[in-house]
Amino acid sequence: MRVLVTGGAGFIGSHFVKRLVRGGHDVVVLDKLTYAGNPANLAGVEHELVVGDIADPEAVARAGAGCDAIVNFAAETHVDRSILGPKEFVHTDVLGTMCLLELARETGARYVQVSTDEVYGDLEAGCRAREDDPLRPSSPYSAAKAGGDLQVLAYVRTYGVNASITRGANTYGANQYPEKLVPLFVTNALEGQPLPVYGDGKQVREWLHAEDHCAGIELVLHEGAPGEIYNAGGEDHENLEVTYRILELTGADPSLIRHVEDRAGHDRRYAVDDAKLRALGWRPRHSFGETGLPETVDWYRENRAWWEPIKSGAYRAYYEEQYASRLKG
Ligand code: NAD
Ligand code: DAU
Where does the record place the NAD(P)-binding domain (predicted)? Predict the structure, then answer.
């Protein structure tokens, strides 16, 4: 297959490109190379790169020519940035999705939308979201992702586009931009910097290795049914548990932990029922605490040349805006 992977220079997208190339597929990457896009993530991987915006129909047509399938990873993805400014999130995650759906409509390409468990909003202890549950997004990010999902479902029903949606849990692994919990706390711990835990740190997330997430997305690409949604869950842990495990694995001192002002609208708990994806044969291979997180910490320890340059320049300005007064307060 010739597959258009949008956002392929980002974290999960680059793992997916590597997986497709190993499987013998031809890959075209369409990526705007925002702060989160990094061609170094694809170094040594055979692919064609088109630098452009998924919300630009001309770039989309150029990149998508001759492709049998489109897998859309391209998005603004960080909840905290969406709270600072939602506009880019609507541009990419809603309008960009629509432009890619237009391509699928015109060419008949198979389409997979990479979405998120955050569209269900937060859940009471004991509940797990199923694919047909109502959407209750809390943040500008998750609202934009929910908007993208609704566009996909409308294009299936109205125009007969052959599209499916995946809704994955919190993903971790190598090459994740150091703004999300795991890479931020691992790199801060390695640098002896504070670990800013929002609120009481008792929020629960499901942790899913990037390679397991990509295996599920590829399965849906080949075996998923049009108009169907597939959840992909992980191992649930409280943020503080994850924080203490990172301290243990990096050898950093627990005094680095700072409880800071909470995220606005912060979801307490995500959890999904992923029986539908498992029924297609999906089984995650990585255990978060035993192998996945230790291997990820090792990767950051051994790849300072990848993340140290990122944590300067524009990153510093973002970090100051997000954390300076929190850490002082
Ligand atoms: P990321 O932020 O690491 O990468 C996003 C990529 O999209 C970057 O390469 C960026 O340059 C590109 N991009 C952004 N706007 C673009 C535009 N307008 N046109 C073209 N390219 C653009 O993201 P990630 O964490 O790898 O997430 C990938 C996808 O998976 C997203 O759709 C996200 O919503 C979804 N998802 C992420 C997680 C997670 O925990 N990271 C979990 C579930 C679902
Ligand atoms: O659930 C899937 C989602 O997971 C994806 O759709 C998003 O793209 C991805 O960013 C992630 O969203 P979260 O908001 O859950 O991830 P984040 O790493 O930002 O935060 C994880 C938890 O850690 C959350 O409860 C907030 C908390 N946190 C995060 C940061 C960055 C802190 O306590 N301190 C921090 O500095």
Answer: 4-290
The reported pTM is 0.99
Task: Kindly state the tokens that stand for 58.
Answer: 């001309």
Ligand nearest to the CA of 271: 2
| 277 within some domain | no
Q: Is the pLDDT of residue 112 over 90?
A: yes
- Report yes or no on 163 lying in a domain: yes
Residue 171 alpha carbon, nearest atom of ligand 1: 40
Q: Is the pLDDT of residue 6 over 80?
A: yes
Q: Within 6 Å (CB) of ligand 2, which residues are found? A: 77-79, 116-118, 169-170, 180-181, 184, 196-198, 203, 205, 239, 263, 270
CA distances from 91 to 87, 115, 185, 312 (A): 6, 16, 29, 26
Ligand nearest to the CA of residue 168, numbered in listed order: 1
Number of the ligand 2 atom closest to the C-alpha atom of 80: 19
Distance 253 CA to ligand 1 centre (A): 32
Q: Does residue 47 lie in a domain region?
A: yes
